[in-house]
C-alpha cells in the first residue's frame, strides 16, 4: 500500500537509476575491512571528488556499504564500475552537474526560460547549496536536461505555455518539492526494511505533521529515530541552516498531505512486519534498591531502548 501511495510523489525523473529498480546500497553479503575500502579511498580509485562519489551513490551508480566504521565500498564494486564501458568518461558524464547558466547554455535557451521550466517542475534538481546571500542555488544533472530537451523540444522555443505562465504567476515553485521527492525515491530504493522505509518518508515532515500521521508515541519515536539525513553535511552557520531547513521540509499543503498519507500507510505495513520497540518489551533488570542519580533527562527513544 505504501509503495502505491508513494507513486503520487514521483515526478519526471532523469535516466540515472531513478525510474528503474535500484539495488539497495547495502545489498549482498557484507564485506569485511579487507574486502572493502573507505569512502575517500573509493573516490580516489574512481577518479571522483568525495561529493561526486556521494552523488554517484545517491543515483545508484555506485553501491556503498554501511559498516560500524562508516560507509565503505566493496572492492568488487570498484572493479565493476571501473570495468564498465567508457569508464571514466561515461561515469563523469552521468554525474555532471550544472547550474542555471551552464544548463541554459547546454540547451541553447535563456537562463530565464530554464528557471521557469525548473519552477514548473519539468525536471528535478539533483543538488543545492546556500550562497553567501542566503539564497538557494539549484543544480541539475546535465543528463536530465538533455533527456528533457529530447522529450519535449517544443518547450525550448516560442511562448511559455499558458498553463505554466499561470502557475508561475501564482508564485508556485516546484524545485524544492521535486528535489525532496527525488531524495526520498533514492532512500526508498536503498532499503527493503519496512520501518526504515517509513523513516525515509518521515524525513521531510515536521513534528506536527509527523504526529498527525503516526499517533502512537512509541511508533513515532521509532520512526523519528530511523529518519535518514537528506544531505550529507549541514551548514554550521545558523542563518544557512535555517535556509536549508526550508528546503528539507515539505511546505505545500498538498505535498504535506501526500507524505502524511504515504507515511501512515508505510507504518501500517511496518506494523504487520514487526511491532515497534516499546518499554514493556524491554528486559527490566532486578531492582537494586538504587535510584537513578539526577542528571540530564533521557530522550524518549533512549528511554525506549534503555540507553543512558
Question: What does this entry look like structurally?
Answer:
This protein is mostly helical and 308 residues long. It is built from 16 helices and six strands. The protein has helices at 2-6, 39-46, 50-58, 75-82, 89-95, 100-107, 111-119, 142-151, 162-169, 175-189, 194-202, 207-213, 217-226, 238-248, 253-273, 300-305, and strands at residues 36-38, 65-67, 70-74, 97-98, 127-130, 136-141. A three-stranded antiparallel sheet has the order 1-3-2. A three-stranded antiparallel sheet has the order 4-6-5. α6 (100-107) packs across α7 and α11 (194-202) packs antiparallel against α15 (253-273). The longest helix has 21 residues, at 253-273. The radius of gyration is 22 Å and the shape is globular. The chain starts with a helix and ends with a helix. Residues 1-30 and 283-308 have low confidence and may be disordered.
Note the main attributes of this structure.
disordered N terminus; 16 helices; 308 residues; three-stranded antiparallel beta sheet; mainly alpha; 49% helix
TL;DR?
By secondary structure, this protein is mainly alpha-helical. It has helices spanning 2-6, 39-46, 50-58, 75-82, 89-95, 100-107, 111-119, 142-151, 162-169, 175-189, 194-202, 207-213, 217-226, 238-248, 253-273, 300-305; strands at residues 36-38, 65-67, 70-74, 97-98, 127-130, 136-141.
Question: Any chance you could write out the topology, listing elements then pairs?
Answer:
Layout: H1 2-6, E1 36-38, H2 39-46, H3 50-58, E2 65-67, E3 70-74, H4 75-82, H5 89-95, E4 97-98, H6 100-107, H7 111-119, E5 127-130, E6 136-141, H8 142-151, H9 162-169, H10 175-189, H11 194-202, H12 207-213, H13 217-226, H14 238-248, H15 253-273, H16 300-305
Antiparallel strand pairs: 1-3, 2-3, 4-6, 5-6
Helix pairs in contact: 6-7, 11-13, 11-15, 12-15
Amino acid at each position: 500500500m505504501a509503495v502505491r501511495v508513494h507513486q503520487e510523489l514521483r515526478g519526471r525523473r532523469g535516466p540515472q537509476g531513478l525510474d528503474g529498480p535500484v539495488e539497495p546500497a547495502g545489498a549482498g553479503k557484507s564485506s569485511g575491512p579487507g574486502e572493502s575500502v573507505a569512502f575517500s579511498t573509493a573516490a580516489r580509485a574512481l577518479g571522483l571528488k568525495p561529493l561526486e562519489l556521494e552523488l554517484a551513490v545517491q543515483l545508484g551508480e555506485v553501491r556503498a556499504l554501511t559498516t560500524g566504521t562508516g560507509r565503505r565500498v566493496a572492492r568488487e564494486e570498484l572493479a565493476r564500475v571501473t570495468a564498465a564501458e567508457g569508464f571514466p568518461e561515461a561515469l563523469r558524464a552521468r554525474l555532471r552537474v550544472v547550474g542555471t547558466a551552464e544548463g541554459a547554455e547546454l540547451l541553447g535557451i535563456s537562463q530565464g526560460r530554464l528557471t521557469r521550466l525548473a519552477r514548473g517542475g519539468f525536471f528535478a534538481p539533483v543538488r543545492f547549496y546556500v550562497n553567501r546571500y542566503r539564497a538557494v542555488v539549484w543544480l541539475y544533472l546535465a543528463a536530465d536536461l538533455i533527456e528533457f530537451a529530447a522529450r519535449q523540444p517544443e518547450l525550448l522555443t516560442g511562448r511559455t505555455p499558458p498553463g505554466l505562465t499561470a502557475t508561475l504567476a501564482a508564485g508556485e515553485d516546484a524545485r524544492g518539492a521535486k528535489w525532496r521527492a527525488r531524495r526520498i525515491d533514492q532512500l526508498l530504493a536503498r532499503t527493503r526494511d519496512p520501518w526504515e522505509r517509513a523513516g525515509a518518508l518521515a524525513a521531510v515532515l515536521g513534528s506536527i505533521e509527523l504526529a498527525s500521521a503516526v499517533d502512537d508515541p512509541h511508533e513515532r519515536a521509532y520512526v523519528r529515530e530511523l529518519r535518514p539525513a537528506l544531505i550529507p553535511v549541514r551548514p554550521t552557520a545558523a542563518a544557512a541552516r535555517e535556509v536549508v531547513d526550508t528546503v528539507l521540509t515539505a511546505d505545500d499543503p498538498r505535498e504535506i498531505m501526500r507524505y502524511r498519507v504515504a507515511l501512515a500507510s508505510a507504518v501500517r505495513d511496518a506494523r504487520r512486519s514487526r511491532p515497534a520497540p516499546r518499554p514493556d518489551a524491554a528486559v527490566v533488570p532486578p531492582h537494586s534498591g538504587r535510584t537513578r542519580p539526577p542528571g540530564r533527562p533521557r530522550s524518549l527513544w533512549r528511554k525506549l531502548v534503555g540507553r543512558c
